[in-house]
Each structure stands twice: as structure tokens, then as C-alpha cells.
Design a protein that fits this description.
This protein is of the alpha+beta class. It has three domains: about 140 residues, Beta-Lactamase (2-Layer Sandwich), CATH 3.30.450; about 110 residues, Beta-Lactamase; about 120 residues, STAS domain (Transcription Regulator spoIIAA), CATH 3.30.750.24. Helix content is about 35%, strand content about 25%. The chain is built from 13 helices and 15 strands. The strands form three sheets. The chain has a five-stranded antiparallel sheet. The chain starts with about 20 loop residues before the first helix and ends with a helix.
């Protein structure tokens, strides 16, 4: 199928007039006027003189032709080129457009009532009987005055109750922030509806009978082009300050031949807002966790080449592993000679924690520094002894002050040592 233009996923661009069957449209319009030729075709004479009101409408709801009786009944404002929905009561316009869009080309008539605007500003209740000939795009309609007892009844209220599937679809279109549309195999809109149309100043049924290739410019969407060629597609776009998720689904006829495209565009602004809020909260949590980690492992350089890490509270295996990572990184960055682990604030250690402390001191040595334990409390000392932890090769001091003094003396001794 050859496509010379393609639409963006949201259908709010310029509208074009319905051009299918151009020769037929011109002929109908010619028949709708008083013939001036002497040799008038019988069908032209029938159309011109038929006493009932007869109107021919395009699939998009535009009047193609109407006879004199129709003009006399509906008024001069309903004329060729005018959309019938514009001539209807505001409460009936949408239902009228939808009724025209649902007419099948099987010749079976549909009947409903609709209020029409009058030149004096009043409303006239008309009964519409509409049908389509097999294989024809035009909609034929006869108009008559509605029964006065039912003159107030809207077209939507005169129709029989719709199947559950149609009622579900109606509820979704009315309450969800979506746009739904359908085209035939030639790209002609046969359905166009959805609550989200209001965001673009569009109205349901506005593009019925029009071609996607005439409606839009050269802005091409690869997923939609693929759908028009029979392949499903999906995309996310940002249009007019809104985020949209667009799905394109090809539809097939009974013989599995390509029959058109179903398109659904969903406004994702709310979802995008929630996602951005969650991302902001996660970023805040990560920053807070970083602050907490810094508070849990406050590594302080108390002297040149001397680092100290005061540990407070319960030191479990998870915290001990994080302390090791942070302390080894600090020793490496500062080129420290000593790293003091002050356990004055630690009341409880378990086997895994004791193992991590010993491993931490050994790892510090591998970096060329010396690890020192200070402030071991009696309860912790008893636990270490009962667990059989060997601290014989690790310098220990009763307080942080004593440990720091030990480090300073060692540094001074190395400074005074004569060069060989």
C-alpha cells in the first residue's frame, strides 16, 4: 500500500474535506439542485421532486446533497458542505455523529430522533432514518417530524441498549485520558473518540471520513507507518507539554487481509509525574543513606599520618564489612601510617564481627599501615576470649588517648632515627 503522507500519533492537525468518490459527490450535488437542462435524468427528477425530505451525507457527517423538501423541513442552515452535527442540539451532536459512523453498508436502515436548530433559535425534533448501500461510502437519510410525545427524546436515548462490549468501551473513552481511533485499509478514519481529545481542542468524530494522509503533514512516525503496512507498533512521544504512550494495532478481515489500524494514545502525564517523584525520593534516600554511612563510620585524621575510627553501638557483620571498605579506602587515600579502631562505644560483638575486626587489621597491614584497637570494654573482651579470637599480634590500648600517644611516639622515633 502506497502512503505519501503519515501522521504523528496524536490527531489534532489540520482537517481536510472528504474527497473520496469525487465524481459521485459532484453528481449528487448536481442532482440536489433544480435541473436546468431539458433532458433531465429520471433519477434527477425523482430526487428533485420527491415529497419527503431526503439527504445524502458523507461518512464524516458532511451534507453532500439534499432536496427541496429537506431544506424546507430542516432550514436553510443545513446545506451542502455543512456538518449535520453543527445543525443539531449540542446535547445530541455527539450521538448523531456516532450514529452516522456506525451505519453498515448492508442496506439495513437505522432509525433515531435528534433535535435540530431552527432559524428562529428554537429546536425541532426530527426522526432520521439512515442507511448505506452495499459498497457505497455515502449515507442516505430521510427526515420527518418526530412524534410530539417524544420530541424531547435525544438520539442516544432512542437507540436500543447497546451490547456490554460497547458500553464498556464507552465508559473507557469517557473516563480515561485516552484517544482512540480506527482507520480502514486506505487510511480513512471510521472512528475517532476519547476524553483526551479535549486537551487539543478536538472533538469526537471530528476526523471521520477523512484520510490520515490528508489530515497530517510530512511528520512521519515509523511505528504508525509500520502499522499501516500491517505490523503492530508502539512509541512514547512528548507533544504540547504532555507525555503520550501510543499503540498501533493492525486489524484484519475474515480472510486475514489487512483491513485497517486501531490506534490508542494515552496521556502519561500523571504516570510521568509519579515516576519523577519516585526518582526524586530515591535520590533523597540515597543521599540520606550516604550521610548515615558517614555518621556510622566517622573516619577522622587526628594527627599527621594517623586516622581514627570511633565505633559506636552494635557492630553486626553488615556494618563491619562497610566499615572495612570505608577505612581501607581512607588509609589508601591519606597514605596513613596508623589506623586506630576505637571500640569504646561498642557493647556487643558476635563471632562474625570479631572475625571482621581481625581481618580489617590484617588488611590495613597489607596497605603498609598499622592497625590498632583501643577502648575494648570488659564485656567485649570476655566475648573475644570466649570465642577464641587471637589478638596477640594486634596492638591494643585501653583508651583512644593511649593509642594516639603510642602512634605519635612511633612517628617521632622514626623521625629521629638517623639515616644509614
Amino acid at each position: 500500500m502506497h502512503h505519501n503522507k503519515i501522521s504523528t500519533p496524536l490527531h489534532v492537525a489540520r482537517a481536510s474535506t472528504w474527497t473520496a468518490q469525487a465524481d459521485t459527490v459532484d453528481r449528487w450535488r448536481r442532482w440536489g439542485t433544480v435541473a436546468t437542462e431539458q433532458a433531465e435524468h429520471p433519477f434527477e427528477a425523482f430526487f428533485r421532486t420527491y415529497p419527503g425530505a431526503f439527504v445524502i451525507v458523507s461518512p464524516g457527517g458532511e451534507v453532500i446533497a439534499m432536496n427541496a423538501a429537506a431544506r424546507a423541513l430542516a432550514g436553510e442552515k443545513l446545506a451542502p458542505g455543512v456538518r449535520v452535527a453543527e445543525h443539531a442540539h449540542p446535547d445530541d451532536a455527539l450521538a448523531l455523529t456516532q450514529a452516522l459512523g456506525l451505519v453498515k453498508d448492508d442496506g439495513a436502515p437505522a432509525r433515531f430522533m435528534c433535535r435540530a436548530r431552527q432559524p428562529n433559535g428554537g429546536m425541532l425534533a426530527l426522526t432520521w432514518q439512515i442507511w448505506r448501500a452495499p459498497g457505497r461510502p455515502e449515507i442516505f437519510a430521510t427526515l420527518s417530524l418526530a412524534d410530539s410525545a417524544h420530541a424531547h427524546v435525544r438520539v442516544a436515548e432512542t437507540a436500543p441498549e447497546k451490547p456490554l462490549s460497547e458500553r464498556v468501551l464507552r465508559a473507557l473513552l469517557d473516563h480515561l485520558d485516552i484517544i482512540a481511533w480506527v482507520t480502514d485499509k486506505d487510511g480513512i478514519y471510521t472512528f475517532y473518540d476519547g476524553k483526551a481529545l479535549a486537551a487539543f481542542g478536538a472533538s469526537p468524530g471530528q476526523l471521520l471520513g477523512q484520510s490520515v494522509f490528508d489530515v497530517f503533514g510530512d511528520h512521519i512516525s515509523p511505528p504508525m507507518r509500520a502499522a499501516l503496512d500491517g505490523t503492530p507498533g508502539r512509541e512514547s512521544v512528548h507533544i504540547v507539554g504532555s507525555h503520550w504512550d501510543n499503540v498501533y494495532l493492525p486489524i484484519h478481515d475474515a480472510g486475514n487481509g489487512f483491513a485497517g489500524v486501531i490506534g490508542i494514545s494515552q496521556n502519561m502525564n500523571e504516570g510521568q509525574r509519579i515516576r519523577e517523584e519516585l526518582e526524586a525520593r530515591l535520590a533523597l534516600i540515597e543521599r540520606q543513606e550516604a550521610v548515615i554511612r558517614d555518621l556510622e563510620t566517622p573516619i577522622i585524621q587526628v594527627w599527621e599520618n594517623v586516622l581514627t575510627l570511633p565505633m559506636i553501638g552494635v557492630v553486626d557483620s553488615r556494618r563491619a564489612a562497610r566499615v572495612m571498605d570505608d577505612l581501607l579506602g581512607a588509609v589508601s587515600r591519606a597514605s596513613a601510617r596508623f589506623a586506630i579502631l576505637d571500640l569504646t562505644g561498642v557493647e556487643v560483638v558476635d563471632t562474625a564481627t570479631a572475625y571482621h575486626l581481625v581481618q580489617m587489621v590484617h588488611a590495613i597491614r597489607l596497605l603498609g599501615a598499622e592497625g590498632i584497637l583501643t577502648g575494648i570494654r570488659p564485656t567485649v573482651a570476655q566475648t573475644l576470649v570466649s570465642l577464641g579470637v587471637d589478638l596477640s599480634g594486634i596492638p591494643t590500648h585501653g583508651t583512644l588517648r593511649h593509642g594516639l600517644a603510642f602512634c605519635i611516639r612511633r612517628l617521632e622515633t622514626r623521625t629521629r632515627r638517623p639515616a644509614l
